[in-house]
Design a protein that fits this description.
0% strand; globular; 53 residues
Length: 53
């Protein structure tokens, strides 16, 4: 797994992944996240799941 890749299939898993990236310093406050539709497509989840995360 890439250290800078958001992972998960549920909103809570995706949010935890983003949180972990931030805690490791791979994602800093103010960094842009991928667009919701793009993230949902990459993770194979519904757009609403990505929005909830």
């Amino acid at each position: 797994m890439d250290q800078q890749t958001i992972t998960g299939t549920t909103a809570s898993e995706i949010a935890a992944s983003v949180r972990a990236l931030h805690e490791r310093g791979a994602l800093r406050t103010g960094d842009a996240l991928p667009p919701v539709r793009e993230l949902a497509a990459q993770l194979g989840v519904n757009r609403n799941t990505a929005v909830a995360a």
